[in-house]
Amino acid sequence: MTPAPDVLVIGATGSLGGATLAALRERGRGARVLVRRRRPDLVHPLTEQVVGDLGDAASVRAALVGIRAAFYVSPHEEAELAYARRFVEEAERAGVRVVFAGVHATRRTLAGRLEGAVVRRIMPHYRGKLAIGALIEREATDAVLLTPTAFFQNDELFLEDIAAGVYPAPLKGFSMVSTADVGAVAARALLEPGFPPGTHRVVGPRSMTGAEVAAAWSRALGRPVRHTGDDAAAWARTADLRLAAGRKGEDYRGSFAGLGRHRLTASAKDVARTAALLGRPPQDYADWAAEVVAAGRVPVTAPTPA
Predict the structure, then answer these.
(1) Which residues contact 175 (CB under 8 A, 6 or more apart)?
(2) Is 246 a member of any domain?
(3) Residues 226, 215: contact at Cβ < 8 Å?
(4) What is the C-alpha separation between 158 and 213, in angstroms, rounded?
(5) Which CATH number do you get for residue 144?
(6) Which InterPro entries match (predicted)?
(7) 38 pairs with which residues across the strands?
(8) What is the spatial distance between Cα 164 and Cα 160, in angstroms, rounded to a whole number?
(9) How many folded domains does the chain comprise?
(10) For every residue of the chain, which 3-state class applies, written as one string?
(11) Which residue segment(s) compose the domain that 96 sits in?
């Protein structure tokens, strides 16, 4: 009989929660997930689904029964700060350690406060998410806060464009990271009581411009892919076509706008620390692109983007 899980994953249907759940399964460890309705795609011998809602205190309380550590990622919703506050309150009441992944700049150091000021200035749409990280840092006992950079997997939005020979996203220079690497670190933090609390940056091995990303796809596909992200009008058309409506779409648009104007790079120290957390070097974007192509996920043909 599979033992009852002592780990809870919030956001298991999303990118980070899904990657964390996958990393736990790879280690043979079970997890409970909180979902708004039962999900056939989450059915697995190591996964227990609990139906509930972050907006309902009773649901959160029930999901935390018997749990030792919980992974929390904020949904793209207007009430995200209220959800986070409720979750932290219930986790503290239950004695559950919170492992958070998202936008965060620690307020415990001068460097962190300066970083937060920079993020608020160049990406003002993240002010709400910075408030969530600050709340968890301030009020959750022994919390682990993982602060990843942008994800390789965001570029899955543009696979049809890439197949047509275009990488459309504006990117001045940024250190992207695989969600699988973030999930692997989160799984460690959930499973290891001795994992150090505090803020941990999780980054990719190098910073890349849009042209360098396009070159990586050219090598993976064996045919030219050019970067068009410097063309504001072309990017606007692509964004309207590829990015979702609502709060999530707004967050994505704001992120890409910031990445098109500013270089946001990771230091060698950040890369070394990420490698230490993983027990190996973080995955390179070019290797991820090659995996996507090898898996047949890039359309063979696609219409040329407008």
Answers:
(1) 149, 203, 204, 205, 206, 207, 208, 264, 265, 266, 270, 271
(2) no
(3) no
(4) 12
(5) 3.40.50.720
(6) Ergot_Alk_Oxidoreductase (IPR051604), NAD(P)-bd_dom_sf (IPR036291), NmrA-like (IPR008030)
(7) none
(8) 6
(9) 1
(10) CCCCCCEEEECCCCHHHHHHHHHHHHCCCCEEEEECCCCHHHCECCEEEEECCCCCHHHHHHHCCCCCEEEECCCCCCCHHHHHHHHHHHHHHHCCEEEEECCCCCCCCHHHHHHHHHHHHHCHHHHHHHHHHHHHHHHCCCCEEEEECCEHHHHHHHHHHHHCCEECCCCCCECCECHHHHHHHHHHHHHCCCCCCEEEEECCCCCECHHHHHHHHHHHHCCCCEECCCCHHHHHHHHHHHCCCHHHHHHHHHHHHHHHHCCECCCHHHHHHHHHHHCCCCCCHHHHHHHHHHCCCCCCCCCCCC
(11) 7-151+179-202
Region 39-61: what's the mean pLDDT? Answer: 95
| 281 has pLDDT over 80 | yes
Share of the chain above pLDDT 70, in %: 86
Which of 176, 81, 87, 85 is closest to 129 using CA atoms? 81
- Supply φ then ψ for residue 124, to 5 degrees: -60, -20
Q: What is the pLDDT of residues 70-116, one digit of tens each?
A: 999 988 788 899 999 999 999 999 999 999 998 766 777 756 666 65
Bridge pairing between strands 31-35 and 7-10: parallel
Provide the pLDDT confidence category of residue 262 given band limits of 50, 70 and 90. low
CA–CA separation, 246 and 197 (whole Å): 34
Is there a domain that residue 224 lies in?
Answer: no
Residue 161 lies in a domain: no
- Cβ contact 240:253 at 8 Å: no
Is the residue at 291 inside a domain? no
